[in-house]
Amino acid sequence: MDEGHDQQALHPAIRGLKTVCRCNNIKYRTIERAIRNGACTITQVAVCTTATTGHCGGSCTPDVQQMLDELAIQRPLSSAAPSASAAAWWVRKQ
Predict the structure, then answer these.
(1) Is 19 helix (H, G, I), strand (E, B) or coil?
(2) For position 19, which CATH number holds?
(3) Does the global pTM surpass 0.70?
């Protein structure tokens, strides 16, 4: 039976109760909330929820990554770091 197919069939309220990280007892809805609040990497989700940090060594990491792929806002890399103009106060004048 395809587990990914089962996830699509679940009602959102039921899916939210699913335990993603068994070591730390972190539910789907907790990770979903962290992603909706701006976490966009595994490390950020781990800091917000402690998911992927259990004694098992992070066996839930693929599930959390899949959630990030589905739920996180995709930002282009070019807009992530704005370039400094020559007039910026932190640019050394020569």
Answers:
(1) strand
(2) 1.10.10.1100
(3) no
